[in-house]
Amino acid sequence: MEFLVKFVSVVLLFASSVLGVEIISVVEQSVFGQGDECYGTHVGFGYSGTPEFHYESLLRRYRGCKHVEGNLEITNLQSDQISYDLSFLSTIEVVTGYVLLGLLDLESIPLTNLKLIRADNMFNIMGEDYGLVVAFTDAAGENKNRGLRELQLPSLKEISRGRVLFMQNPLLNFVNTIAWNVIVPGVTNPVTYGDSAYNTTSLEVCDPACENGNQRFCWGRGPKMCQIVHFPICDELCPGRCYDSTIVGCCHPECAVGCTGPSNSDCLMCKYFKAGEACVSSCPGGVSVRNGQDCLED
Ligand SMILES: *[C@@H]1O[C@H](CO)[C@@H](O)[C@H](O)[C@H]1NC(C)=O
């Protein structure tokens, strides 16, 4: 199997000199990752090339990707010459580093299937480490009515490390309705609200379907944007998450999100990798023998 892959890529590399551009996308797959996996970036608010080139490289990097190894940085999408379509982001489920959303004047960021931000690597601003940063999402130009209005992270269940920062998002709605302490475990005040963190005079309200107790929790308009909140009863001594039920119990440290029992095969989601039914911190055959979180049979 491995031999075949190598052989095919050698043939393709050879063919690329004959066929030119067509083959570049195939070679890129090996640079950007394989299967459901892709590699993130580490440039912060920077970018290189023209706005068009920058947008196209985001597309190439993340299209079809489920598992981002590294940081997901979606920034510098502010050209009024480009009609941005970020729907390709909806395949992403896991980010192993931090998520940075900034310098955007788009209405929404459709990371609708993102479940876990593991934040192995955190974004440091002024001495504080963050797993999620949303900043400078108002329009760069004249039009002050353009900018981020909805965060749209309805599947987000855990930010394993770091805190959350919002600043300069004057049009952003709903983020103050989110129960952040359920997403960021073990941190008392998980969110920093900087200047114009969100629209504090917003009249937008969550859909009635988002009601839980006497409160509504949501990421955007409509019933699909509800935050589904379970408030687990958690003992302070639990090392990670707690049972996703009314029974008090600590999840196994290999679990992300929550669990139904104490073992590493009772996890709602794995923090690192999944070998058969069990969550593990490394795959039996070594970390390269996997696709995203799934360990592969060698
Ligand atoms: C905030 O929301 C209110 C009501 O929805 C709206 O009138 C106002 O323009 C918004 N603020 C900004 C800065 O857009």
UniProtKB/TrEMBL annotation:
Domain annotation Furin-like cysteine-rich: ranges: 204-296
Catalysed reaction, written as an equation: L-tyrosyl-[protein] + ATP = O-phospho-L-tyrosyl-[protein] + ADP + H(+)
Signal peptide: 1-20
GO CC term (a single one): membrane
Record-linked InterPro entries: Furin-like_Cys-rich_dom, Furin_repeat, Growth_fac_rcpt_cys_sf, Rcpt_L-dom, Rcpt_L-dom_sf
Keywords: ATP-binding, Glycoprotein, Kinase, Membrane, Nucleotide-binding, Phosphoprotein, Receptor, Signal, Transferase, Transmembrane, Transmembrane helix, Tyrosine-protein kinase
GO MF annotation terms: ATP binding; transmembrane receptor protein tyrosine kinase activity
UniProt xrefs under SUPFAM superfamilies: Growth factor receptor domain, L domain-like
Pfam families assigned: Furin-like, Recep_L_domain
Membrane topology: Single-pass type I membrane protein
Top-rank taxon: Eukaryota
Subcellular location(s) per record: Membrane
Domain Receptor L-domain: 64-183
Record EC number: 2.7.10.1
Main location: membrane
Full protein name: receptor protein-tyrosine kinase
Native organism: Magallana gigas
